[in-house]
Amino acid sequence: MNSRRGNDVPHSPVFYAYLVVNINGAFLFTENSKVTPEVMDHLKSAKVELRPYDSILSEIESLAVQGVNLWMDKSSLNTAIVSTFKSASDRLKKKKRPILNGETGPDAIFKPSPISLAKAVKNDAELEGMRNCHLRDAVALVHFWMWLEDEIGKGVILTEVDAADKLLQFRSEQSGFMDTSFDTICGSGANGAIIHYRAEPGSCSIVTDKELLLLDSGAQFTDGTTDITRTVHLGEPTARQKECFTRVLQGHIGLDQAVFPENTPGFVLDAFARSSLWKIGLDYRHGTGHGVGAALNVHEGPQSISFRFGNMTALQKGMIVSNEPGYYEDHSFGIRIENLLHVKAVDTPNHFGGIEYLGFEKLTFFPMQTKLIDMSLLSPAEIKWVDDYHSQVWEKVSPLLDGSARQKKHLHINKA
């Protein structure tokens, strides 16, 4: 991990800290040993005072005694801070402190943190970094899939852990690589049906050309965060597997092409990704999309695309979300197709109600295995989407590859 960003949380370039902000400055509560002289000078110039990490509760109590109002986000604060402020506030109010400036005492204001939204809406530099790191990530994935196909073709025995370790090796060779963005999910056959599966040495399965392989992985680069899932078959898929894969792909395309009015919460779009599965009585048990940080946490709020309709956060220009419908046949196989998308403005011929309409720009460029597609299920528009996407993959990724890696057969790019 890049020590200047922090490495307290596995796979996330952040450090443990609290921050109290007022109109005149801020107090950063963290361990002094984590702050370099260069960072200390920057904090001082920004009017940020460093304080010990374990003094946060006494500071919260002091703020209550001073009679201040404190804005807190319950979704991200721990119970100790909320209860400490409330207890100190209640004690102060019982003492009947004289009214000052029309105030009757300190109050907790519970609202979503403005910091969460500021992180979620990426600026131009963050978006450019995300675009660039996804292309380098694609290069690593090309080398990995070439290696895996060759090894399986030669009859080499490889476990799911072996595959995940080799992917990490290829990623680590890319410039700006810091770490994986989460523990790689490499599930062969029935293990692919376990949504948050993690292969362990000694108990994991063998990767073969007889079963589907689901690989969900990502990386932390200095300029961005990646998260991609591809499902492949290194032999001959069954008709059932092809039908399920194709319906998942149709859902992926449906969400990718969605156009929607501004102020639309993400849950409204969830059905776009499920409708093809619903038509034959299938579904999946997880959300369709989560927010993603830019060189930060791979799961980042407040936005999401999910059947859990309690999240009313509207999708806004600059946000990044995943598009990852799937299907999981218990004890048999799992399918997931995931790209990251950037929310952008769309030029529509009409603007009903005088509002702006939004859509998505793809950040992830890596092929989808065409031999898993049942072409008879795709509409002409869906076939065009697949062909256009693979053309973009070739244009963007192939110039970054050397030698045999530039051959289209190794990118799995074929006309749908």
TrEMBL record:
Keywords: Hydrolase, Manganese, Metal-binding. One of its GO terms (cellular component) is cytoplasm. Residues 356-411 form the Peptidase M24 C-terminal domain. Coiled coil: none annotated. InterPro entries: Creatin/AminoP/Spt16_N, Creatinase/aminopeptidase-like, Pept_M24, Pept_M24B, Peptidase_M24_C, X-Pro_aminopeptidase_P. The keyword Lyase does not apply. It comes from the Eukaryota. The keyword Isomerase does not apply. Residues 128-344 form the Peptidase M24 domain. Pfam families: Creatinase_N_2, Peptidase_M24, Peptidase_M24_C. Its cofactor is Mn(2+). One of its GO terms (molecular function) is metal ion binding. Belongs to the peptidase M24B family. This is Xaa-Pro aminopeptidase P.
